[in-house]
Design brief:
By secondary structure, the protein is of the alpha+beta class. It has one domain. It contains 4 helices and 12 strands, in the order ββαβαββββαββαβββ. A hairpin with a 2-residue loop joins strand 5 and strand 6. The longest helix is centred in the C-terminal third of the chain and has 19 residues. The radius of gyration is 17 Å and the shape is globular.
């Protein structure tokens, strides 16, 4: 049976972008696209997995049931469209990527409302092209915790999906350099608008998971 050693390099703890500190220019909308996981939930999952680990399916279910998405905006009152991008980054660059449409408002909703555990599981498996998945294979989540600002100090605005991709790729590479090794893959997730508007200032930061197969 193949085992997967997973170290979560960037599960974000209640990522808070403080819009009280942002001074919006006249006619400009400032919006933070929030993707967050709570550290206590992650540590509980690690503790419960113990030496036995958890299955691919259980880990995928945890991600989709524990992640939350929502908006923080200086003036915004309706549900808007967005996209959740996931990039799998290996030693030689991107080994997988996908985008999922989402609907977001200022009311937090679970990630699983827009992406199922099965969808995340399939993406996870396909990102290890040299690994044969057997039902019941085991994850061993690491106990290291690094907030997103470990990769990105300060406020960061993005102006396009390409900006988001560069940010996610940079976070993935940093994760690999911090705790990577042969066969490791970093999974970077970032939430963005479905369309970028000229009068919109968008803030978003990636969540990064790191894992390897043996």
């Amino acid at each position: 049976m193949r085992y997967l050693v997973v170290g979560v390099i960037g599960v974000l703890t209640c990522l808070s972008f403080l819009f009280s500190d942002l001074q919006a220019q006249e006619g400009t909308k400032q919006i933070a696209y929030q993707l967050e996981f709570e550290e206590n939930n992650y540590r509980a999952m690690v503790g419960n997995s113990g030496e036995k680990g958890i299955t691919f399916e259980e880990f995928s279910k945890w991600v989709t049931e524990r992640g939350q998405i929502y908006l923080k905006a200086d003036r915004f009152g309706t549900e808007v469209g967005g996209r959740l991008y996931i990039y799998a980054i290996g030693e030689r660059g991107i080994v997988g990527q996908n985008g999922y449409p989402v609907k977001i408002s200022e009311r937090p909703v679970m990630l699983g409302r827009h992406i199922s555990g099965r969808e995340f599981l399939n993406f996870l498996i396909q990102s290890y092209p040299n690994s044969t998945h057997i039902p019941g294979d085991t994850f061993f989540p690491g106990d290291h915790f690094f907030p997103g600002d470990h990769f990105f100090p300060g406020d960061h605005f993005i102006k396009s999906s390409r900006d988001a991709e560069r940010m996610a790729m940079d976070a993935g590479r940093r994760a690999l350099s911090s705790g990577g090794g042969a066969g490791k893959v970093a999974f970077a997730m970032i939430l963005v608008p479905d369309q970028f508007e000229p009068d919109m200032e968008v803030m978003s930061k990636p969540v990064v998971f790191l894992g390897g197969a043996k």
